[in-house]
Amino acid sequence: MQKICLTIVLITILSCLIPARAQYLAPEERKFTRQDSLRGSITPERAWWDLTYYHLDIAVKPADSTISGRNTVTYRVRSNSNIMQIDLQPPLEITSAEQNGRQLAFTREGNVYWIKLAEEQIPGSVNSVVISYGGKPKASRRPPWEGGITWTKDSKGLPFVASSCQGAGASLWWPCKDHMYDEPDSMLISVNVPSNLMDVSNGKLRSVVRQKNNTTTYNWFVGNPINNYGVNINIADYAHFSEIYSGEKGKLSCDYYVLKENLEKAKIQFRQAPMMMAAFEYWFGPYPFYEDGYKLVEAPYLGMEHQSSVTYGNGYRNGYRGTDLSGSGWGEKFDFIIIHESAHEWFANNITDEDVADMWIHESFGNYSENLYVEYYYGKEAGAQYVLGSRRNIRNDRPVTGKYDVNYSGSGDMYYKGGNMLHMIRLIIDDDEKWRGILRGLNRDFYHQVVKGSQIEDYLTEKSGLDLKPVFDQYLRDIRIPVFEYYVKGSKLTFRWNNCVPGFNMPLRIYVNGQKMDIKPSARFATIDLGVENPSVKTDIGYYVATLEMTSD
């Protein structure tokens, strides 16, 4: 057989070359350390206790870039043990730990503190440990891509401070159980700041207490489970405005905190927040945190999906810093940070990955949500153009799924490749209402849950009624683009999948003389009679595959 489709051959070759020049090491090539395992695994010193509540009570001092205070960790005993793992990264230090007024002994191993409990831990009982700490937390040089605290000033010279720690860990700035598998049922966040500033954190503002030392404490209560990196502080001389959104579960308070100089711009740009809410409640179901409200908070970096406290730094312009990442033109119609980061309220904060290796759950759905937003307001074709345009950002450098138990995420392709995978699954299902029901079902059936990637894969398989395992194996755990190879002889079409994982049998939509036809290729050549002599055959561009037309010689 002779290859006669040069363009697609080149695409296929390039996709194979990209990994060779990728900047990341493949999981099997990277050397993982004991610290990686302590951070990324459910150690015995974590497994015996179940988080129920945090009270993080801290003072933030912008003048010397320090944080000090304590975290009260309340937990239910699952099994008897007396060693508790608490995570806190240098240069911060735990200064004391106590239970029921009794000082506890502890030792440090890198980013981990081993706290020895003096009292018997009876299964089923609920206990608390008070952990005091302080110091200068790591300052982020590239927030939010490098975790830490951002210490900056606004145009008036007043402090402008914020946390961002996804990936690097919440233990960069506060002591906690720094693993995604376990979330507190609720949390109180008390932040003391200079009185000319305001702190905005997660949940609802319960009280504001003026202190005698010219400081003020802001008490924020989170009434829902919250993941560790979702907790945040934002400190500035903020202006505040608000509105009520009438949603699927009733009245939702929407609050906006911005630098005073940006108030008028924010009042215009943030009109997209209720537009976002309408679109995503349609696709995903009710906003998951009505009890805690929704906030957009200006931050000195691009933005992050902190639960009920989404941070914003996109310059009050549409696109991603004014750029359409899809190249389709549709990305200019919305503010990327408002839409993408808010979508994480459903996928990341409501449904949370247990292991960062499955972060595609957050980012694939987050990326795909942009497409759905465009579709909601501009039509199905516009949404498709947006997601297809984003393919230009796919690198195929390493698998989308990372390595488990060592805090190692997969390729950045979890965004664009993952979004295209979901778009493809929708095409395979070929029932838009069924697809919307699946998306809403995910947020209903996994409401406020921490999940494994396999659970999401199984759910999509079960609810679609299709065998999607080969699709997930190909697009999440392999870097190759599958090639649809075919040739036409008379009225017969002969075809197969190549460059794919074993057992790859993804259905494919083709067009024969412009007429839609669904076929089921496998790794073996199959032949069907099209009923027309020498037709033109084209694959549906919605499928992220390469196509190779061959001759029958």
What does this entry look like structurally?
- This protein is of the alpha+beta class and 553 residues long.
- The protein folds into 3 domains: 45-234, tricorn interacting facor f3 domain (Immunoglobulin-like, Sandwich), CATH 2.60.40; 269-480, Neutral Protease Domain 2 (Neutral Protease, domain 2); 481-549, Immunoglobulin-like (Sandwich).
- The chain is 23% helix and 31% strand.
- An 8-stranded mixed β-sheet has the order 5-4-8-2-1-11-14-13. Strands 16-17-18-20-19 form a 5-stranded mixed β-sheet, with helices on one face.
- A hairpin with a 2-residue loop joins strand 16 (238-247) and strand 17 (250-259).
- Helix 9 packs antiparallel against helix 12 (469-477).
- Residues 1-27 have low confidence and may be disordered.
For the structure shown, list the relevant keywords:
single chain; 553 residues; alpha+beta; Immunoglobulin-like; Neutral Protease, domain 2; 8-stranded mixed β-sheet; 5-stranded mixed β-sheet; 31% strand; globular
Strand content: 25-35%
* CATH second-level architecture of the largest domain: Orthogonal Bundle
Overall shape: globular
Q: Structural class, from helix and strand content?
A: alpha+beta
The helix tally amounts to 12
Helix content: 10-25%
Mean pLDDT: 94
Cα separation of the termini: 5 Å
CATH class of the largest domain: Mainly Alpha
At the fold tier of CATH, the topology name of the largest domain is: Neutral Protease, domain 2
Report the C-alpha radius of gyration, rounded.
26 Å
**Total domains, how many?**
3
Strand order of the largest sheet: 5-4-8-2-1-11-14-13
Q: What's the total count of β strands?
A: 29
Largest sheet: 8 strands, mixed
CATH homologous superfamily caption of the largest domain: Neutral Protease Domain 2
Unreliable segments of 5+ consecutive residues:
1-27
